[in-house]
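The following record pairs a protein chain with its ligand, flavin mononucleotide.
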Amino acid sequence: MKILIINASVRSERSYSRKLTQLFVENWKTKCPSDIFTYRETGIDSIPNIDEGWIAGAFKKTPDRTEENRKALQLSDELIKELKEHDVYVIGVPMYNWSIPSGLKAYIDQIMRINETWKFRSGVPDGDYVGLLENKKAFILSTRGDTGYGENEKNGHVNFQTTYLKHILGIMGITDTTIFSLDNEEFGGEIFENSKNEIFNAIHSIA
Ligand SMILES: Cc1cc2nc3c(=O)[nH]c(=O)nc-3n(C[C@H](O)[C@H](O)[C@H](O)COP(=O)(O)O)c2cc1C
């Protein structure tokens, strides 16, 4: 198995989402020592935003692309190749302003490519998306300052983080998604310690 770890926090040592992905890797390694891990950074090293050249190239058929189009899509091509080559995606993602960090959004814009990671079923815009990444599994390891972001909980209606990621993964065909959320970071103290213990144990018990 090849595991792709995608980190999104702009913090390094103090980041809890990075701690979660690290814990995930340590646990996985004890169970599957010969698996391969690749790291994709979207928080500290910035992923460039897509631009006009990118859009001009992405919506053309491959043979119609100019040299300029091909250049604009080069990073996107590399990132999509990386996704296709891996079996499991582990996304360490903080909630920033009820959503995801902008670096991860830039990454998503680079990988959401028509006829590469998704297509319209009929071949023309029909609102019927077909994901092209098959047989993949995703883990979303989220961190948040507050809590109550689950469905039907007090902040559920403003959770544009895990719900958004789940939707994006689904469009690309990744429907086998498991979410772990470490909440309460802003409160600290016992309440945060309890949340940490709960999530750390849950990650440890992944088979
Ligand atoms: C810029 C910024 C915006 C944040 N926005 C929210 C938010 O909308 N809701 C929330 O619950 N926590 C929010 N937080 C708290 C973070 O989600 C929390 O600190 C988390 O642990 C950060 O991830 P990290 O530890 O991996 O860096 C925000 C933190 C920062 C720095």
